[in-house]
Amino acid sequence: QVQFVESGGGLVQPGGSLRLSCATSGTIFSIYSMGWYRQAPGKQRELVAAVTKVGSTNYEDSVKGRFTISRDNAKNTVYLQMNNMKPEDTANYYCNAHLPGIPPVFDWGQGTQVTVSS
User: Fold this and answer.
1) Which residues are CB-neighbours of 36 under 8 A, at least 6 positions away?
2) Three-class SS string for 102-114?
3) Of 38, 74, 80, 104, which sees the most CB atoms within 10 A?
4) What digits encode the pLDDT tens for the residues 96-117?
């Protein structure tokens, strides 16, 4: 069973920063691109950022220039550095394998809650 373990969330003031981490199995990490997703209350889960096995990245428009996704292939871990955070970034953040054009096929982890508030 594939598992994703997210961590690093918390409460941060507007303009602040957080760094999220997600660990998974080496098999998944070696095969797939990885993505960070988020789901705010009452909204659908959305893709925030993705990184390929070789480090190419893409971002949802609202986070471009503020968030940076990266991966450490030796640690089977993907990161999301979030800077200049805004209240609208408040959500539960999840990682999963990213397959362009189709929804993630693996079960979701618990996610990590991010709250941006003064």
Assistant:
1) 20, 22, 47, 48, 49, 50, 69, 78, 80, 93, 94, 95
2) CCCCCCCCCCEEE
3) 80
4) 999 988 888 899 999 999 999 9
